[in-house]
Amino acid sequence: xxxxxxxxxxxxxxxxxxxxxxxxxxxxxxxxxxxxxxxxxxxxxxxxxxxxxxxxxxxxxxxxxxxxxxxxxx
Length: 74
Fold this sequence. Notes:
Layout: E1 2-7, E2 13-17, H1 21-33, E3 37-41, E4 47-51, E5 55-61
Antiparallel strand pairs: 1-2, 1-5, 3-4
């Protein structure tokens, strides 16, 4: 699944591919609760540490979800 993390101190967006959503959510919740650092590997293979207090949002795309295209009501 694809995850996008917005960073509050910059306009950049971190994009990750994850295998296990439950594990990812648990690790993020722990980092935020402990005001720690979340360590991730991005889609280019780089290791990136994000201070939990800098996370603006986390968006998780469900690869199996159907997406609507266009402007008509679904």
